[in-house]
Amino acid sequence: MAMPERKPKGTRKGYTTGACSAAAARAAVLGLLAGRVPDTIDCVLPNGQDVLFKVEESFVLNGRAHAVIEKDAGDDPDCTNHARLTADVSWIEQPDTIVLRGGEGIGQITRPGLGLAVGGPAINPVPRKNIEHNIRLIAAEALKTRGLQVTLSVPGGEEMAKKTLNYRLGIIGGISILGTTGIVHPYSTAAFRASVVQGVEVAANQGQASVVLTTGGRTEKFVMRELPELDESCFVQMGDFLTPALDAADRCGIQNIIIGGMVGKLTKMAQGETITHAGRAPVDVELVADIARSIGAPAEVCDAIAAQETARYASECMAELGLEHAFHVELAKRVIATLESRYPGRFHISVLVCDFDGNKLAEAGRI
């Protein structure tokens, strides 16, 4: 496990699967060179930072060296926190060659669009480069006459991967080795943001004309039922990251955007929030009251909505008045108007609205 200085809870940084893999590979190669794997290993991260990692397990036997680094995600734990990133290395005959393979628990690429070879391991380009850089720092002389085979593995990686969206990207059988800086920032959700962008890019690389952005699992199941004609690669769970998803679609040339959501997140979109997380900004209840007013809700109900803190309350009031459908259609139209003003002429946007059980309430735009 990496050994950062202890800091107050909620502020401690951690290390990516890529950084831990690079440290494990460097430790194992040092073991081949010296006959013994060290107890700790220096590793240069992609951002240039030098970090000392603790080697949890190691051996050198019959021309093979083995080293394990346990991932410490700091105060931003995910399903790969405490994963044991493992490197097994051995010499090969080709000089100046480093062959990187994926073993147990490392995902396999089954679809084009990720910038990685189909059939190869899910080790992203920055970690690949970083692993090789760390090896060459210590083995440059030895690599003049022979090469190295490096096999990365993660015990339990296949189970961990079930908690990710890897399967949607065509990555099967394990986790991905990720990380552009080597650092995990507390609660930055940088990995999730990156996966949203990657999901849009995969849809574009597969030639899809539409991308369906949803705020979570329930809304995704709902829109998948509504749009069975679309390929699975079109559906991207964006969570709170609307703007990164739309920016990626714009960059990739996808013009048909379908958004699936429930009242709370859609209200955030309508009021122009770029990140729709509940903790980032309060719901604009005046906006919600204005929507209710515009469809003919009684003044006292609109005043009550403006005095509350949630959009869900408005939705419940409208249901009691028989205005539920009209309210959600108008909300969806406000979302479209806000986003079209931010991205003028760049997208055709449609919105599908469901309730908290995933039942359809309304739609707007040309689905």
Automatic annotation (TrEMBL):
It catalyses: Co-precorrin-5B + S-adenosyl-L-methionine = Co-precorrin-6A + S-adenosyl-L-homocysteine. Gene3D superfamilies: CbiD-like. GO terms for biological process: methylation. InterPro entries: CbiD (IPR002748), CbiD_sf (IPR036074). Keywords: Cobalamin biosynthesis, Methyltransferase, S-adenosyl-L-methionine, Transferase. GO terms for molecular function: methyltransferase activity. It comes from the Bacteria. Pathway: Cofactor biosynthesis; adenosylcobalamin biosynthesis; cob(II)yrinate a,c-diamide from sirohydrochlorin (anaerobic route): step 6/10. It is an enzyme of class 2 (transferase). The keyword Lipid metabolism does not apply. Its EC number is 2.1.1.195. HAMAP family: CbiD (MF_00787). Belongs to the CbiD family. This is Cobalt-precorrin-5B C(1)-methyltransferase. It comes from Methylomonas aurea.
